[in-house]
Every structure is written in C-alpha cells, then in structure tokens.
Amino acid sequence: MVFDAIVIGAGIVGLSTARHLLKSRSDLKLLILEKEERHAFHQTGRNSGVIHSGVYYLPGSEKAKHCYAGRKLLEDFCDEHGIAWKRSGKLIVATQQKQLPQLRELERRANENGVASRWLAAEEVNDFEPHVASVAALSIPEAGVVNYQEVCDALVKDLKNRGAELRFGVRVDSCVENSEGLELKSVGEAFATRLMVNCAGLYSDRVARMFNVKLESQIIPFRGEYFALKPEFNSLCKTLIYPVPNPDFPFLGVHLTRGVDSRVTCGPNAVLAFSREGYKRTDVSFRDLMETMAYPGFWKLALGNMGYGLHELWRSFSKASFVRSLQTLVPEVQAHMLEPYPAGVRAQVVYESGKLADDFIVKRSAHAVHVINAPSPAATASLALGETIGNKALEQI
User: Is 119 helix (H, G, I), strand (E, B) or coil?
Assistant: First the structure.
C-alpha cells in the first residue's frame, strides 16, 4: 500500500497534525509510526500538565500565536471529549525588587498577546496564594491544568474513528526518495508514502537529516527534574506559582503546579541529560553524549553560561538546593514535605552559535515537513500547531 501521508511520532503534536489532515481530507490514507509501544511516551506524557496562556512569548512569534489559538482549541476539545481540565490561574512572582522590570515586561507581552493579566502589589498576593513571599506578582487568570496523556488518549480514539492506522514499536531508520514520494525503512519493513511529516520530538533533527535537510542546529536534551508535595502539604499551593524567568533562557524556572488531580508538583530544573531519553542521572547513551560533546554549539552555550549551568547541575544533585529554590516562592516548604516525582526531557534546539532556539521551527523538504523545535508550550498549542503543520503538508500532497 502507498500511503498519502505518514506521520512519524505519536506525541501530542504528531497526533494533532494527523487529526487535522484527516479533518481536512477524510479520504487520505494516513499512517502514524511510533517507535515506542504506546503514544505520548516522552515529552507529552512527562510534564507538569499546564495549559499556558501565552504570557511569556515574544509578540508576533509562532509560540505566541499558536499558544493563544491553541489554548482555546484545547479547552474546547477537552469539553467535547469529557476530559477534566481546570482554569486555575497562575501567579508569576517577583521575590526581589530587581525582578520588577522583567515582570513589567511580561505584563507588556501579556497585553500585546491578548492575555488577561493583573498586577498585584505584595499585600494583594496573599489573597490568591496565602503562603507566597513576594514584592509583587502578575496574576494570569486564563492559565490552567490538564492531563495531557488523557488528551492524547482521546486524540488516538478520534484518529481511529477517522480511519487512521497506527503502528507502535516501529522506528524509522532510513528513507529513499524518488519522484513519486518516499520509502521509509524500519527493521524488516518498508512503508511507501507520498508525504512524510516528522514529529519525532527528541529525534526530529536526526530524522530531518535522513532527508538531507540542512540544519545549522542540533537538539540538546535537557532533563527537567521534579518533586511533588506529599498530599498532607498540598494546601501550600492553590494554583500555579511561578518565578520571574531568566530572560536569557526559554526555561521558566522551578515552580509549583497544582494539577487537575490536586497533586502539587515542584520543578522542573534544566540540566544536561547524557541521553535523549535520560530520565535518570544514571541514564547514559554513548551516541547521544558523544554527539553533544562533539557539537561546537553546545560548548559555546556551556562556556557562555557556566554559572547558570553549574547552578542547575548542583540543584540536580542537592535536594537542599532544590528546596531553597522553592523557598524563595513559598518559604514554608521543607525537604521532608517532598517526595520523588518522574522527570522529563526537553528536546531543545541549540544553534551553532550557542544560542537556544526560542520559537517553534518547521522546515520542508521535497516530500516532507519537519517539526524541528517544538518544546513548551507545544502541548498547549498542539491543536493550532497541528493545523499549521497539517496545512503545510496538504500543500505538498
């Protein structure tokens, strides 16, 4: 069989893209290939479950546009499919006077991005979060929480109802292009298609290079580690409590998130992973590590941000340091209140210059569309992002 389209990757972006393709063209023969034995195994299923409002992103950027549109689409999808979600609201908290200019910049971005916000003086903050210490905060009422695994479960069901075929445990190792399309090869199998959509997440750059896509960048994996408050201490966080982020990095800092199940997670940090699937400090892939070490962009990033990197590394090994980060926001948090929680790995594109990519990146090749960079807020933005990627794909079919 020759498929009209094959999507590589059954994370939330791949599933959303496939859904848009079939909503637009119900006659398409579509196949989704996933190397794991289930969907949403990596980035989608290993995060804090936040529905982002779009406050952080540069006005006019792809992140800003897709997060704004995607949030509403996601909420509607959850309502349609009976998925629990909550518009809990968020506080971005300044704990020092020197953070106030950056908090004002976030207020400006919120206004330009169409995101509702309210500036709170220190005496007002505790009306929202009684245990927070601050000099001021920005209240973002439209932020929320959801379980993205449940969203993907519903997407898979929807796709099957629309006639999509899903194959798990299939890793694409190579491809052959010809004038008619592509032949994707896995161990003992080959799949012919007119078009391929690369939503391979942590491996999207490697898949793109199979298609001779010129990239002046590489994915560097960063592990995000978490703790969770023990249930008896959940009252310390009612909503979402975030620090003012470092404007030089696309990471939002260690924060507290009360999930849709009322569990409070604390994190993540951002530390170099020695494997693209390095969910533990002991997880090491020789290929992944050597690829990172041999990449000049990594060394430019590391040497230019030595202090930040060493602080993140120390916080990874020192629970006391992690706790101190939480205490800047909620002073009552103590080490004995925390229990382990699964880590995630962020697929972060780093340019040869050492600069971190801070927007979604989608590229094309002759018979393919490649999603090169889609970290947070990709889950929130997924349905809108899937429309954009899907439309690019439909232009090529």
Answer: strand
Looking only at the bridges linking them, the beta strands covering 144-146 and 85-86 are antiparallel
C-alpha 183: how far from chain center: 30
Q: Where are the alpha helices (DSSP H) in 162-227?
A: 204-210
Which amino acid makes up residue 23? K
Q: Are strands 30-34 and 85-86 parallel, antiparallel or unpaired?
A: unpaired
pLDDT tens for each residue of 305-350:
998 888 888 999 999 999 999 999 999 999 999 999 999 999 999 9
Chain CA centroid to CA 9, Å? 14
What is the token pair recorded at 68?
């704004």
Contact 144, 85 (CB under 8 A): yes
Taking the whole predicted model, whether its pTM rises above 0.90 is answered as yes
Name the strands in the sheet holding 165-168, side by side, starting at the edge strand that comes first in the sequence: 165-168, 30-34, 5-8, 196-198, 368-373, 361-365
Question: What residues does 183 pair with on adjacent strands?
Answer: 176, 192
Q: Which two tokens stand for residue 137?
A: 């905060």
pLDDT at 200 over 90: yes
Give CA angle at 59 (358, 224), nearest 5°. Answer: 35
Per the listing, tokens 């300044």 go with 94
> What distance in Å separates the CA atoms of residue 343 and residue 46, rounded to the nearest whole number?
7
Q: What are phi and psi for residue 140, nearest 5 degrees?
A: -120, 90
Report how far apart, in Å, the C-alpha atoms of 40 and of each of 68, 205, 332 are: 23, 19, 35
Edge to edge, what strands does the sheet with 174-178 contain?
2-3, 189-193, 181-186, 174-178
Q: How far is it, in rounded angstroms, from Cα 100 to Cα 104?
A: 6
User: Nearest Cα to 92, choosing from 240, 248, 250, 247?
Assistant: 240
